[in-house]
Design goal:
Rossmann fold, Arc Repressor Mutant, subunit A, 2 domains, seven-stranded mixed beta sheet, 11 helices, about 15% strand, disordered C terminus
């Protein structure tokens, strides 16, 4: 059972989110908050698997709550609810260690799929958000892309050859099971490799690792829509 604390300052939206989540027999909403401070307190009380946070809330917003939850309760993953008009927040939340980004106006199935992916230790970007992030990365000037690419390649040089193989497949959005099948190894070994990759690259989660793989040229396309 995936235990979730959800936070949004709009009562109707919280009710809608609760209805979507509780329709899945594998998800339980253990707490609801109207702002980030209340969400932080509920996470401390219930120790959920996931905190689902609106990016903008009065008082303590989603970004501040994300930082506090990850620092104080690292076993709780954070998934951010956002809109098309909040692209700048995506990059900030990504750097802050959020594991998922879901559009409020997206398909409810994306939200459920995202929570399941994150609960398995993976990461998730709604397809629309992934495309926007790819476009943002692609919009960087040639000099900027070369600089970022060189920096990413330098960091990836820290990895073993097998770890680079795994990272490339993480960048394609494959789950641990899919990576294991592709490389002919067991999922437990993939999990060990992924943990080592995150440590060696000094990144917090698979989304950050996937973006780094994209910038280094390990994968074509862009960051994953889902990575379990």
């Amino acid at each position: 059972m995936i235990r979730v604390v959800l936070a949004d300052d709009e009562t109707m939206i919280r009710a809608g989110l609760r209805a979507i989540l509780t329709a899945d027999p594998g998800i339980e909403v253990v707490g609801e908050a109207a702002d980030g401070a209340e969400a932080i307190a509920l996470v401390g009380e219930h120790r959920p698997d996931i905190a689902l946070l609106d990016v903008q809330m009065p008082g303590t917003g989603g970004l501040e709550a994300t930082a506090a939850i990850i620092a104080g309760h690292p076993a709780t993953a954070v998934v951010i609810l956002t809109t098309f008009s909040e692209d700048a927040y995506i990059a900030r939340a990504l750097s802050g260690g959020a594991s998922g980004f879901v559009l409020k106006t997206g398909d409810p199935r994306d939200l459920v799929a995202g929570l399941h992916a994150v609960a398995k230790g993976g990461a998730y970007l709604s397809p629309e958000i992934a495309r926007r992030l790819i476009a943002e990365l692609g919009a960087v000037g040639t000099a900027g892309r070369m600089s970022r690419g060189a920096a990413a390649r330098e960091r990836i040089d820290r990895l073993t050859e097998r770890e680079r193989d795994v990272l490339a497949l993480v960048g394609e959005g494959l789950s641990n099971e899919e990576i294991a099948a592709r490389l002919g190894i067991v999922p437990g070994t993939v999990k060990v490799h992924v943990g080592s990759i995150l440590t060696r690259l000094d990144v917090r989660n698979r989304v950050q690792a996937a973006v780094l793989a994209y910038e280094a040229g390990l994968v074509r396309g862009g960051p994953p829509s889902a990575a379990g």
